[in-house]
From TrEMBL:
Keyword field contains Manganese: yes
Pfam families documented for this protein: NUDIX
Domain Nudix hydrolase residues, every copy: 30-170
Name of this protein: CoA pyrophosphatase
Organism in which the protein naturally occurs: Bradyrhizobium symbiodeficiens
Requisite cofactors: Mg(2+); Mn(2+)
InterPro entries in the record: CoAse, Nudix_hydrolase, NUDIX_hydrolase-like_dom_sf, NUDIX_hydrolase_dom
Keywords annotated in UniProt: Hydrolase, Magnesium, Manganese, Metal-binding
Length: 208
């Protein structure tokens, strides 16, 4: 149990500070920059700490109906942190300033041509969350104890790749990379482990 409060915020911020991100590539990347948010808030029971996970609207052009962390493509001249905070506001009407940021995880390159930066933020007041129906079908609070269970993640093989496919088991659903990989790395950061996830594979349906 990680009670939602200042002590947990300090502990998670310290864990993020102790995590050594992979260095940015020196050469310009052909991948488009994007950012997602691991927004930490109160769990449904009001005691534990949770993060926000969305189900994407069925009307979206790409990845409709899939589980995802809030986020999207970086606008021109925008940093990943700025993009993450803007997307959080646009998708969930959750306005946070830069001082809510606790840390960054490793950039994750996707098969569809994006380089995703995960931004960990502390959402102290999430009572005003209002999902944007054009982008978000539903929003869910996933308790941190859920992702810390041994059986929360598994790895499987596919004939199309030599890399392992990671899967997060959630409410009878399988959530795949990139979302599963980013949540898994956050779980490892909470445990004080320097675990890399850039080589964890996505399922073939997510390659486009």
């Amino acid at each position: 149990m990680r009670p939602f409060g200042d002590a947990t915020r300090r502990n998670i911020e310290a864990a993020c500070a102790s995590f050594a991100r992979l260095p940015d590539e020196a050469a310009p990347s052909a991948l488009k920059r994007a950012a997602v948010v691991l927004a930490l808030t109160e769990a449904n029971d009001g005691d534990d700490t949770a993060f926000l996970l969305t189900k994407r609207a069925s009307s979206l052009r790409a990845h409709r109906g899939q589980w995802a962390l809030p986020g999207g493509r970086c606008d021109a001249g925008e940093t990943p942190v700025e993009a993450a905070l803007r997307e959080l506001d646009e998708e969930l009407a959750l306005k946070l300033s830069a001082d809510a940021v606790l840390g960054l995880l490793d950039d994750y390159p996707t098969r569809s041509g994006y380089l995703i930066t995960p931004v960990v933020v502390w959402a102290a007041d999430s009572a005003a969350i209002r999902p944007n129906p054009d982008e978000v079908a539903s929003v869910h609070r996933i308790g941190l104890d859920t992702i810390e269970r041994d059986e929360a993640f598994d790895f499987t093989a596919i004939p199309e790749s030599a890399r392992r496919v990671i899967r997060f088991h959630h409410q009878m659903s399988l959530i795949h990379a990139p979302t599963a990989a980013l949540i898994y790395q956050f779980r490892e950061v909470l445990a004080g482990r320097q675990t890399r996830v850039t080589e964890l594979e996505q399922p073939v349906f997510a390659w486009k």
